[in-house]
Amino acid sequence: MGAFIQVVCETPRLVLRELADADLAAIQAYATDPAVVEFLPWGPNTHEDTRRFLSDVMAARAATPRQQWDLGIVLRSEQRLIGGCRLHVTDAVAGEADVGYVLTRRYWGQGVASEAARALVGFAFTRLGARRVWAVCEPANAASARVLEKAGLRRERFLRAHRLMKGRWRDSYVYACYNEPR
Ligand SMILES: CC(C)(COP(=O)(O)OP(=O)(O)OC[C@H]1O[C@@H](n2cnc3c(N)ncnc32)[C@H](O)[C@@H]1OP(=O)(O)O)[C@@H](O)C(=O)NCCC(=O)NCCS
Fold first, then answer.
1. pLDDT in tens, 28-46
2. Ligand 1, closest atom to CA 143?
3. What range defines the domain where residue 139 resides?
4. 103 C-alpha to center of ligand 1: Å?
5. What is the β-pairing status of strands 7-10 and 168-178?
């Protein structure tokens, strides 16, 4: 498998790489965990949900110009896919992309998501030429807010009850960072 998998970003501990059908079981390990998906718009996933996700990812990868990078987070020391992250171009004209991440619960608290998020921000600025990288995060998701801060994003806005997710209207903080002085 290794020879065909494309590496997109590398950090001291992590490889962020393209996903493959063979990753389905590793994705299921976190996508089925209710604690992991609590603040996410998807999940807990069935096998079919994850199969569809992978097929959507493959389709988006083939788009020209490509707008979406949904990548696996591989921990070098274990050669294991322990999570996923995303960078989606949300406005190509304005140079905006949003970032997201999710990790298998037993790898929380080791700085992995911050390392991945920093790498994605760098990828967006240096390789995609993005001007603004942004993310939304529920105020209750303190770990995610901290990850965004550690990746260099700053809190810009509070959106009250702006999205209906899993039967509840959710608040969000909007975080962003810029590749140019404002
Ligand atoms: C959010 C998530 C990706 C964080 O991953 P992680 O690898 O554990 O994050 P890191 O270790 O890089 O950093 C977490 C930071 O949050 C802090 N933190 C963790 N839980 C916290 C809490 N309840 N309150 C305040 N800070 C908290 C940690 O101390 C750490 O900050 P520090 O390095 O300054 O001490 C992980 O918890 C996850 O997968 N959650 C489910 C998916 C999700 O919510 N994704 C984000 C959607 S917006």
1. 999 999 999 999 999 999 9
2. 16
3. 2-178
4. 10
5. unpaired
